[in-house]
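Narrative of accomplishments. A recurring question from our advisory board has been how the design workflow behaves on a single, concrete structure rather than in aggregate. To address it, we present the structure tokens for one chain from the evaluation set, followed by the sequence designed for it. No filtering or post-editing was applied between the two.
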């Protein structure tokens, strides 16, 4: 990895907070992504409280969240295959059409006679179709930006998502009846469906490939992608410890208020909105494997601080560290999967990576809850284990980067971090 003066790194971060020189369709796609996540956040952030109102136990709530998140993760892999066969736009349109049907039924069920099982089933179906949508949008971004600027493109994607999450969280807290949140999300999905159908052009030529869902596993023949994605399961688990595990520990053990917890999450969202694009530009100068390794290293050290922190200032430092790790990991990981992919399998490669990453995130609440239960008399030990998981991921990412550099030394290649499939 190139060694550059700190002033060059700093200038790269502050030179531009706004994206420039991209296809205009990327702006429209970013708006669609923002609206999708805004509507989804209205429902997902307060879904555990709604489940609680329906009489579900904390254990059932955790299982329910894991099921719906797992459905989204799995169908992101399916969505990668569909995006390469049907095309990006068609996959987006059909997934949103199916999702709008599920959401309409969900809204009616929540109004007429809600039950935990019914709401869980319908929401899981909605998340499954949303998973297809998400991978199709990722694949469309890879079409709209040149390969060397892929990390920037996915950085813009992250800004749109976090803007939707931040504003959706605030708006959701102002809505008195939870059913209204479901109606609003449904309306926004229908609005996005109309915008995508009428105004967003296709970016992919589908060719003559047949539909074989086994394709989402065939990409694992690329050993570098497989290794990178397996490590990313651990990285996803690590990243999502900032969610339920962090919330439970800081409110029950450190005794911060819910309002201060909300401020910490708001700080995370604002930092991503302001600086994600600038951080994504680091992918132009540095190896993507090095960036994801640094990301999990920073996150691991930040979680280690949680175990020592009884001070509110330290918790703010922790959030800043976790956010820096998030801003490095999110665009770099997807850009790396995109860079490994043959031209006609970008959707499949991105979908497979997203499946593994989000599977780790889906397991995170269960693993975090289990650790808090095991270390009930000394809950701070949870963060030592979390640090150990992050350290393993850090080492593994560096090892993958070392293997790629070693392979490049043996083969002449035009791309600085493209690895061929190893049979």
């Amino acid at each position: 990895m190139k060694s550059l003066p700190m002033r060059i790194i700093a200038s790269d971060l502050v030179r531009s907070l706004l994206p420039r020189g991209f296809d205009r369709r990327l702006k429209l796609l970013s708006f669609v992504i923002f609206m999708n996540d805004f509507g989804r956040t209205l429902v997902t952030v307060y879904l555990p409280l709604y489940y609680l109102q329906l009489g579900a136990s904390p254990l059932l709530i955790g299982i329910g969240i894991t099921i719906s998140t797992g459905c989204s993760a799995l169908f992101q892999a399916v969505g990668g295959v569909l995006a390469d066969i049907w095309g990006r736009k068609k996959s987006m349109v059909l997934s949103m059409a199916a999702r709008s049907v599920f959401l309409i039924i969900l809204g009616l069920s929540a109004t007429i006679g809600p039950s935990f099982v019914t709401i869980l089933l319908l929401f899981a179906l909605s998340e499954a179709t949303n998973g297809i949508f998400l991978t199709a949008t990722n694949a469309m971004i890879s079409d709209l930006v040149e390969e060397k600027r892929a990390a920037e493109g996915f950085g813009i994607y992250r800004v749109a998502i976090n803007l939707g999450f931040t504003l959706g969280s605030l708006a959701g807290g102002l809505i008195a009846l939870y059913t209204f949140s479901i109606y609003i999300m449904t309306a926004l999905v229908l609005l996005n469906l109309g915008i995508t159908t009428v105004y967003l052009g296709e970016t992919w030529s589908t060719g003559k490939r047949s539909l074989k869902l086994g394709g989402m596993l065939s990409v694992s023949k690329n050993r570098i992608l497989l290794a990178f994605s397996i490590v990313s399961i651990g990285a996803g688990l690590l990243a999502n410890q900032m969610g339920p595990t962090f919330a439970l520990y800081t409110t029950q053990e450190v005794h911060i208020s819910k309002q201060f917890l909300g401020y910490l999450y708001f700080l995370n969202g604002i930092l991503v909105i302001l600086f994600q694009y600038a951080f994504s530009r680091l992918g132009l100068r540095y190896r993507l494997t090095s960036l994801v390794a640094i990301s999990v290293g920073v996150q691991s050290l930040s979680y280690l601080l949680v175990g020592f922190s009884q001070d509110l200032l330290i918790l703010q430092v922790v959030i800043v560290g976790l956010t820096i790790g998030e801003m490095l990991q999110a665009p770099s990981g997807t850009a790396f999967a995109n860079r490994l992919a043959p031209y006609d399998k970008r959707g499949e490669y991105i979908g497979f990576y997203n499946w593994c990453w989000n599977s780790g995130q889906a397991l995170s609440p269960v693993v975090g809850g289990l650790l808090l239960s095991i270390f009930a008399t000394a809950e701070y030990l949870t963060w030592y284990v979390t640090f150990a998981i992050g350290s393993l991921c850090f080492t593994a990412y560096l090892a993958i980067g070392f293997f790629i550099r070693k392979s490049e030394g043996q083969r002449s290649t035009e791309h600085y971090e493209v690895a061929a499939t190893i049979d």
